[in-house]
Amino acid sequence: MYDRERLFDLTGKVAVVTGGSRGLGRAMVLAFAHAGADVVVASRKLPSCEATADEVRRFTGRRALPVASHVGDWKQVEALAAAAYREFGTIDVLVNNAGMSPLYDRIDGVTEELYDKVLDVNLKGPFRLTALVGARMAAGDGGSIIMVSSTSAVRPTPDTIPYSAAKAGINAMTVGFARAFGPKVRVNCIQPGPFLTDISKAWDLEKFRERARATIALGRGGEPEEVVGAALYFASSASSFTTGSVLAIDGGVP
User: Are 251 and 216 in contact (CB under 8 A)?
Assistant: First the structure.
């Protein structure tokens, strides 16, 4: 018989989540803490990290370290890893969740600065953090790394081309890192579709809901908590024979 709670148990583990103070990242931080993990909450703004870390402490009793980190900056990524190891001595789960997709009017109007910013946050930072943490996991007791991609990686639209290219790179890196750090480290990827997080506040929600009913199999956008099952699966021993996998969580986007 399988012990369901033990299968997804993270007691004694340490999880680092970038973009961990809101949206999907916050949902994963709280889920990991409820499953028994101590957590590192990383995002650009320290006050929002501290607020989520305080939630963790109050509602789960787990340890939580807030760290301000801009993942598009190589040195800040290195400082984030160093802070986590200094505080906890280990990292068992890493989630590369931080991302950005700024709007632009015309593709020929995309500046070099905008292009570099999108690639830095969505691709360069996850590469460096995974390389640093994954190498230490592989040299130690192993661990689980979770990339966060997007349906834009496989269904790019004219207004998301740099972002889509970066997320396609995340899908490729998932497979590459799984091979580089196996067998002790598992590297998998969650590929979300449209979720009703803070970013959706900029949408015309009425038009979105109308389009979702017509085109998405489940007829709606996702709620942040609906990423939790996949995150716990990849983070825990439940996925012990899964690596290099990209899992779409998109409600059935065509």
Answer: yes
CB atoms within 10 A of CB 254: 7
What number of residues does the chain have? 254
Q: Which fold has domain 4-249?
A: Rossmann fold (3.40.50)
Q: Report the distance separating Cα 238 and Cα 229, nearest Å.
A: 11
For residue 252, the 8-state DSSP code is S
Residues whose CB is less than 8 angstroms from the CB of residue 104 and which lie 6 or more positions away in sequence, other chains included: 110, 114, 159
The whole-angstrom separation of Cα 10 and Cα 92 is 9
Q: For residue 237, what is the DSSP state?
A: G
pTM: 0.95
| Structural domain spans, the chain | 4-249
> With 0-12 CB in 10 A as exposed, 13-18 as middle and 19+ as buried, what is 111?
exposed
Of the residues 2, 85, 104, 163, which is catalytic? 163
Do the beta carbons of residue 192 and residue 250 sit within 8 Å?
yes
Splitting the chain (254 residues) into consecutive groups of 10 residues, what average pLDDT does each group show?
79 98 97 98 97 98 98 97 98 96 91 97 98 98 98 94 97 98 98 83 75 92 95 97 98 91
Calpha distance 128→185 (Å, rounded):
16
Distance (Å) of CA 19 to CA 6, 13, 50, 70? 27, 19, 13, 9
| Pick from 5, 25, 26, 29: nearest CA to 15 | 29
Half-sphere exposure of 203 (CA within 13 A, CB side): 16
Q: How far apart are CA 57 and CA 51, in angstroms?
A: 10
Can 163 be counted among the known catalytic residues? yes
